[in-house]
From TrEMBL, chains A, B:
InterPro entries: Aminotrans_3 (IPR005814), Aminotrans_3_PPA_site (IPR049704), PyrdxlP-dep_Trfase (IPR015424), PyrdxlP-dep_Trfase_major (IPR015421), PyrdxlP-dep_Trfase_small (IPR015422)
Species of provenance: Chinchilla lanigera (Long-tailed chinchilla)
Cofactors (names): pyridoxal 5'-phosphate
Pfam family, one: Aminotran_3
Signal peptide: none
Keywords on record: Lyase, Pyridoxal phosphate
PROSITE patterns: AA_TRANSFER_CLASS_3
Protein's UniProt name: 5-phosphohydroxy-L-lysine phospho-lyase
GO cellular component: mitochondrion
Transmembrane segments: none
Phylogenetic placement of the source organism: Eukaryota, Metazoa, Chordata, Craniata, Vertebrata
Gene3D superfamilies in the cross-refs: Aspartate Aminotransferase, domain 1, Type I PLP-dependent aspartate aminotransferase-like (Major domain)
Family, as annotated: Belongs to the class-III pyridoxal-phosphate-dependent aminotransferase family.
MF terms (GO), sorted A to Z: identical protein binding; lyase activity; pyridoxal phosphate binding; transaminase activity
């Protein structure tokens, strides 16, 4: 089996999970700050029970009528703007984004796609083509793909000091679309994660999506909001991350995955009647063997039930704000923390070698993650510089968990700074750079 | 929700399944002759239990080590030729075929694909491109796709009277490959279902795959055997349908789906170390969020256990041969049955309007299916003419079930013949074609 592990040099063998905790073979308890797929908590008993009950009774494809699929579509529609009322069920976020691409192309009659720089939309051929995060390392950019700057106000061309970064970044999209059109290209879709995650936990400036939607719709294209990593209440204030962009904004297509089934392979595409009708007129049916099975729908419904019952959306707001506050205090204390950004339980801590240049502190981030693991805290890094600590824990992550992680973070950063200081003292004394391990190196134990 | 139903005019609402039976809201029991996904039987208790046990303990992604994925890869490898020793786990047959395409392209450095006519390999953008069954109705054939004749000895260019159809059909592949090469195209892969199913339950002549593999490997391409519909012992004699082609034949890539998890979204790609190594050297990891999760692997393992414990492969041989024998008796009796073909529990009954022309009896097949449904028997049709009755039931399908279905089939065909005869008598009497419903029409009840 081929798989890339977390901590490849000292992989963790997890045998059990519960809530926000994972347990290894020796019974050691790890706090999971990464596991966004286990949205309502690892092995949530209500979700497990729902799967089991339905598995015992019926699990077949959607060739027959079944109440679950109707109920589930109904429940999802209640969370979305009214226009998004047609649902396709699938098995993975990748399948959802691939279908979104097909829907967009069929509806618009166009082929091209505009994507954000560093975006990742899935592991399928068609999605690697629209994922700069992937295709940059492979055989490059297809002629039908157009990349626009990531609307990153910390590292991008328009930053926190810009008077209106939303307009500025949206104008970049307009420029790219126009230039493509001048070459005779026709845009089918603008694809974006509502909060770009692999790109480094980015929050696009409010208003950006509305402006982009105007620009791309003028070109005959649709707006696809990829909510695979960020949907289902993670952002706290709203059920969907695109809703952070304002009430006036509605995507034409929304894709869902990961958290939707708490680990069970479920995914969904929501779209408008107009888009779906254009797809149906091809006469080519869309059929997905497992998609929308009674079990997948039962699991999806259970996740919605738990979110509601345990008020996890509100919880995400409270705990998320608390964690952000603690992390901002750390920023005051540790110069390596260049930026703390986030909303709800979607948070990024951008580590820099230098506050002025904002050079990504890649090795330091890597070191920090491995030190946290020694403290039984699972955290990961991302972003083009792999220097952004990503918080995207199960939604039951608590205030105590937040306090605990930040305390450990503080201790390790303090330790790193001390090591660095003694290195420098030593270096000054010996007038040599040798003989001292970098702060990013592992300390002797 | 958008879904195409079986029996769109009088859809069935199934609420429960067990073994080879499905039950509707009123408690009526239907015999399922279609449900190949429920491979070891609907809601098999051992499979359901395995899922539940693992769901309660841990269901996370393959970023951490877990025994299940290792055990499962090991067990699968025992069913395959030694060379096929690297496994990728995914969520659907479509994801598997898409990965097979990426693997083939990476390994060969080529782009093009040769496929059988009428083939269907999945619902993703990349797979619609290599599925004549789909792209014929859409925007047509991509320049990198090359279609070869279906090796169908009943309807294809080389038939049962040909001295060596395997050679003749393989030569067609060789011709298509050469002609593509002359245009400067480079072939990455030959894709085929080991037994083409949507194309009409076709059994390629023995030896065909070996010859094709020789031809395409000479062109630098790999052979991909799609076992999504036909693997896991369905053919009885062998665990994999490609093994019907002889001991000397080994594909470079095998894709699995549908039956692999008895309805749970699981899929797999098996390939050689050489192919996998070429993929890894890109430095781009393959990651699939749900693929290879402890639950998916537990379910996959349970399916293998049940197949073994209940000796379902041997069972498929016995019941399949018995059903074939009964169907061949029907062929002697009813001229509408043009051909009965199959192996194990993969059987096709090709209905013709006329024995000489072999014109597909499309409406008659459709009528037959709706009459069988009234007898609580679920059967479907396929093939380019939608005139082939497809038997691909859960593997626990019994001799009694076979006898029951064939008895009903006999009664309905006899009835259709009588109606046809009285229509003709009537028509002769009245000298008019009006006033009588075609045999394919529904009779008044």
């Amino acid at each position: 089996a081929s798989c890339r592990l977390f901590y490849p040099e000292a992989p963790v063998k997890i045998v059990r999970g519960r809530g926000q905790y994972l347990y290894d073979e020796q019974g050691a308890e790890y706090l999971d700050c990464v596991g966004n797929v286990a949205h309502v908590g690892h092995c949530h008993p209500l979700v497990v029970q729902a799967a089991h009950e339905q598995n015992q009774v019926l699990n077949t494809n959607s060739r027959y009528l079944h109440d679950n699929i109707v109920d589930y579509a109904q429940r999802l529609s209640e969370t979305l703007p009214e226009q998004l009322c047609v649902f396709y069920f699938l098995n993975s976020g990748s399948e959802a984004n691939d279908l979104a691409l097909r829907l967009a192309r069929q509806y618009t009659g166009h082929q091209d796609v505009v994507v954000l720089d560093h975006a990742y939309h899935g592991h399928l051929s068609s999605l690697i083509d629209i994922s700069p995060y992937k295709f940059r390392d492979l055989d490059g950019q297809k002629e039908w793909v157009h990349v626009v700057p990531l609307p990153d106000v910390y590292r991008g061309p328009y930053r926190e000091d810009h008077p209106d970064p939303a307009v500025a970044y949206a104008d970049e999209v307009s420029r790219v679309v126009s230039s493509a059109q001048e070459k005779g290209r026709k845009i089918a879709a603008f694809f974006a994660e509502s909060l770009p995650s692999v790109a480094g936990q980015i929050l696009p400036p409010v208003g950006y999506f509305s402006l982009v939607a105007q620009h791309v719709r003028r070109a005959g294209a649709v707006f696809v909001a990829d909510e695979i990593q960020v949907g289902f209440g993670r952002v706290g204030k709203h059920f969907w991350a695109f809703q952070l962009q304002g009430e006036d904004f509605t995507p034409d297509i929304v894709t869902m995955g990961k958290s939707i089934g708490n680990g069970h392979p479920v995914a969904c595409v929501a779209t408008t009647q107009a888009v779906s009708r254009a797809f149906e007129t091809t006469g080519v049916e869309y059929f997905n063997t497992f998609g929308g099975s009674p079990v997948s729908c039962a699991v999806g419904l259970a996740v919605l039930d738990v979110l509601e019952k345990e008020q996890l959306q509100t919880h995400a707001t409270c705990v998320g704000s608390f964690l952000m506050e603690l992390l901002r205090q750390q920023k005051e204390k540790h110069p390596i923390i260049g930026d703390v950004r986030g909303v709800g339980l979607f948070i990024g801590v951008d580590l820099v070698k230098d506050e002025a240049t904002r050079t990504p502190a890649t090795e330091e981030a890597d070191y920090l993650v491995s030190r946290l693991k020694e403290s039984y805290i699972l955290l990961s890094t991302d972003g083009p510089g792999r220097n952004v600590l990503k918080f995207k824990p199960p939604m039951c992550f608590s205030r105590d968990n937040a306090q605990h992680v930040v305390a450990r973070l503080d201790a390790i950063l303090t330790d790193m700074e001390e090591t660095l200081r003694s290195c420098e003292t030593l270096r000054l004394k010996r007038s040599t750079g040798l003989g001292c391990r970098a702060a990013a190196g592992r300390e002797p134990s």
